[in-house]
């Protein structure tokens, strides 16, 4: 008999950090789901947090930066075998500090056009990248 239990949903705040045409990305650790792929940093939105509060907390904890300016970019839902993930993606254009992998994760600043081809990304991150390119095309 198939499992009809609903999958748990994980709500994640994601930071698309843009600086002088480069994006900050991090490599998923070997003990994480989708290990070895590159992604936009972020983390779980706690029950008592707004998405922006979660974004600020996660980027400070993971990267050591204080977000000054961020705006919603795209919200997407992705179904995995074990859970549903809702990604609230925010474009971060101003922050204090020097972004780095505080949790030991490899990180880099990458050209937008090189992200998906040079740095393999999970499917949801490819969609985020496309949304960013479309947004930048509209504002330029």
Report the structural category.
Answer: alpha+beta
Rounded average pLDDT: 90
Total helices: the number is 3
The termini sit apart by: 54 Å
Proportion in β-strands: 35-45%
CATH-defined fold name: Nucleoside Triphosphate Pyrophosphohydrolase
Portion of residues within helices: 10-25%
* pLDDT < 50 stretches: none
Question: What is the subunit organization of this protein?
Answer: single chain
Provide the CATH architecture: Alpha-Beta Complex
CATH superfamily heading: Nucleoside Triphosphate Pyrophosphohydrolase
Strand tally is: 7
- Count of separate structural domains: 1
How does this structure look, described?
It is a single chain. The protein has a single domain, classed as Alpha-Beta Complex (Nucleoside Triphosphate Pyrophosphohydrolase). The chain has 140 residues and is an alpha+beta fold. Strands 1, 2, 3, 4, 5, 6 and 7 form a seven-stranded mixed β-sheet that branches. It is globular and about 50 Å long. The N and C termini lie far apart (54 Å). The chain has three helices and seven strands. It comes from Aequoribacter fuscus. GO terms for molecular function: 8-oxo-7,8-dihydrodeoxyguanosine triphosphate pyrophosphatase activity; 8-oxo-7,8-dihydroguanosine triphosphate pyrophosphatase activity; 8-oxo-dGDP phosphatase activity; 8-oxo-GDP phosphatase activity; metal ion binding.
